[in-house]
Amino acid sequence: MERLRSIEPLAESNCYVLGEKGRCVVIDPNSPVVEGMMTQRGWQPDYFILTHEHCDHMAGLEKLRARWPRTPTVCTTLCSVGIQSPRLNMTSMMEVYLTFRGKQGVHYPPFVCREAEVTFSKPCTLFWQGHTLRCVPLPGHTPGSMGIFLDEITFFSGDYLLPGEDVILRLPGGSQRSYELETLPFLRTLPIGLEICPGHGAPYIRIREENTYGLEPAARS
């Protein structure tokens, strides 16, 4: 399997594209440039998957849907609700957020996405090209957040387990209670040696049990 990572320049979010045998899965289509990466390699998408509803993780989704209209978008039920709301997807406040993060004078007009074709509220598994993608709802950062295990050796964590950063729980829909009761206990069970592919920052290997990082760079990015 080939894995690509595309970094969106404003919020510096990650999109991961997994490719095998001319097919691919797109996790967090953060920018329209992802289409060119796929076209260059001749890859046809089987799934567009969202780790959560924030715009910096799905700003390229509708362009991909227009190009490949039969490819389903997969996310939690609450994520599907959130991508249809400028408040919950953060586009209504993205200019303020980017200014706070040091990006001055950025124009970021609000937008929404259509509802997802495949949604779930409990853990589910997708089977793709001989691989498994196990999706686990993890509320807290947003109501619709989830993590994705690839073959139980790689974990796409969305906006959890970001290198050197605390989890943000104060944005619209965020819940400290949900995070502490549901998500934090789950994250603490992740095994040592698991590769973490975060929504921001470079992939790394989990080498300590705490829900802080003790980072060791992964072999690929």
TrEMBL record:
Keywords: Hydrolase, Metal-binding, Zinc. The keyword RNA-binding does not apply. It comes from Candidatus Flavonifractor merdipullorum. Pfam families: Lactamase_B. Residues 12-200 form the Metallo-beta-lactamase domain. Its cofactor is Zn(2+). The keyword Cytoplasm does not apply. One of its GO terms (molecular function) is metal ion binding. The lineage of its organism: Bacteria, Bacillati, Bacillota, Clostridia, Eubacteriales. This is MBL fold metallo-hydrolase.
